[in-house]
Amino acid sequence: MEAPAEEVARLRAEVAHHDERYHGLDDPEISDAEYDALVRRLRALEDAHPELASADSPSQAVGVAPSAQFSPVEHLIPMMSLENAFTFEELRAWGDRLTRRVQESSAFVCELKIDGVAMSLRYEGGRFAQAATRGNGRVGEDVTDNVATIAAVPERLEGDAPELLEVRGEVYMPVSAFAALNRRQGEVGGKLFANPRNSAAGSLRQKDVSITASRELSLFTYQLGAIEGGPPLRTHTETLELLAALGLPVNPEIRTVSTLDEVYERCRYWLEHRHDLDYEIDGVVVKVDDLALREELGSTSKAPRWAIAYKFPPEERTTRLLGIMVSIGRTGKATPFAQLEPVFVGGSTVSQATLHNEDQVRAKDVRPGDLVIVRKAGDVIPEVVKPVLSERPAGLAPWTFPADCPRCGQPLQRLEGESDTFCRNVDCPSQRRARIEHFASRGAMDIEGLGERTAVVLLDTGLVADPGDLYRLTLDQVGALDRFADVSAANLVDAIDASRRRPLANLLFALNIRHLGPAGAEVLARAFGTLDRIVAASEEELAATDGVGPVIAASVAGFFALERNREVVEKLRAAGVDFGRVEAPALPQVLAGRSVVVTGTLPGYSREAAEEAIKARGGKAPGSVSSRTTALVAGAEPGQAKLTRAAELGIPVLDQAGFEHLLETGELPDLPSG
Predict the structure, then answer these.
(1) Which of 113, 287, 364, 620 is the catalytic position?
(2) What is the fold, at CATH topology level, of the domain defined by 596-665?
(3) Would you call 113 a catalytic residue per the annotation?
(4) pTM for the complete prediction?
(5) Cα-flanking dihedrals φ and ψ of residue 518, to 5°?
(6) Which one-letter DSSP state was computed for residue 148?
(7) 80 exposure class (CB count in 10 Å sphere: 0-12, 13-18, 19+)
(8) Where are the chain's structural domains?
(9) Is residue 354 within 8 Å of residue 378, measured between CB atoms?
(10) Per-residue pLDDT tens digits for 386-414
(11) Highest CATH level, class, for 315-391
């Protein structure tokens, strides 16, 4: 059996990979149910073995880091995720825990769990000012211009709007709009979209906002983030009434109920009627209504204790298994997958399903020609659950895993003690293509425009053999390729050039080191500072790093021990790719817990440098003044709105000398009265 430390390392890498596929690429590879099972297993292991727990574990994370394609936005209040209940027993257990923690009785609010993209909208002085994705929960992507094209998003709030309002909601694509979009795509021979959720996410990340505007997106709001001004609020129900009064769209199916039994009734109802709506839902969110009680219940590091999402069970359908094929991934992993008669399941028509590995195929005993049960959860690629044995045609032979790679013809090898089979030929065309594609992905070097088809063209023409060769490409070389017009060629070359400045953690992840996911790469980057120091580190030194462990350490050391990998590193060095730097000793955290706003120009500081100076000392540097602001630093030509707001709230205003004093001591200088 797999040792706990090894299983934890493997699960962390898998969860981080699938987080990026779902949140970052809008292109998930596994179902929600499979992902949830991975996370639950990881949490169970971390709970059972506290010595393996780590704050860097993806089990503690919310979403993924925002893409470099968009400007970062720091949420005024973090956008947390929700704990899930997959059965009514788990939902009841949550209710029982709730009643044990608090004596007061409270109503519950039942909201439909819209299958879309979580969004934070900000209004200042009643006007729409900013929209940001969830990102990693603390920092999201600025998609203001895209969201502004959505008809359901009011440009100006109605009535007596608060001075500042940060509201959370879900951007979604109606089912009817999704069907119409795919009809239009089919008429012009374009790519068909997988499901409404991924279509909405992809539409929001368009650089051309006219494309977003054409996609008929919509919005429901469901939660307050930050608010300054406005009426006092005692319950979540009052919050929703306020949002509706301000002209923000609130889902009409939300209900406030008095008891947990009524909660269960609402969940059962929507489980049966989920397809009655013109938008996809994948569960019901249950929230405590009393806001004071919410404060008492508090939150964990990633989710509030006062809310839970009851997720609907995966949907299942039957279809015919036409064949079993094997794909080769970037690490050489050979993964069997099913070719199916097209079937509508989980909100979309699918023709392929995962079969995981050789053992899974053998255990399920699915054979080409079988009628099989296909399960799909979360509207992603489904899995084959089992054959319908009563319908099996006579004489079907069991499927056997191929001995040779279907792409390069070299022998496949199953590693001792593992369930996975690998093509060990590192020059296998499938592996080379997948490595290039992974290197360019958003969680890695974020090279926009370099997907699977482009990777195949670059490899087939001999322009690229490994990721290091990407930085040798010229505009003339790319422009000469059949599928590139002048603009797209220039965009690709510019994107490759911009990727030279990606952080060290992204570069490490991009190098395709087995077992090393984004979280582990971040740990190594912080611990060692430069790629050269990581390459030179021994396996023991790597393993001694908190949050790394022996499995990742052995994999990293083994990767850089290979001459061909060192050659790629040298190509990257010659191309000027940022290898990181050793950070200066940490500054005293004299501003921990303080919030300092900067406006205007300060001698010796850019706006960004002044904010970094605050953050480097443990403080926060938000973009607006609020009651939580410690001080406003005002340089030349300051923003008058910020000065006025600071005066209204009695917030101290500091000049250059006061700012320097604050940075050095963490204390406000003596200010003249009046």
Answers:
(1) 113
(2) Rossmann fold (3.40.50)
(3) yes
(4) 0.50
(5) -60, -40
(6) T
(7) middle
(8) 4-60, 72-311, 315-391, 429-574, 596-665
(9) no
(10) 888 878 999 999 999 999 999 999 999 99
(11) mainly beta
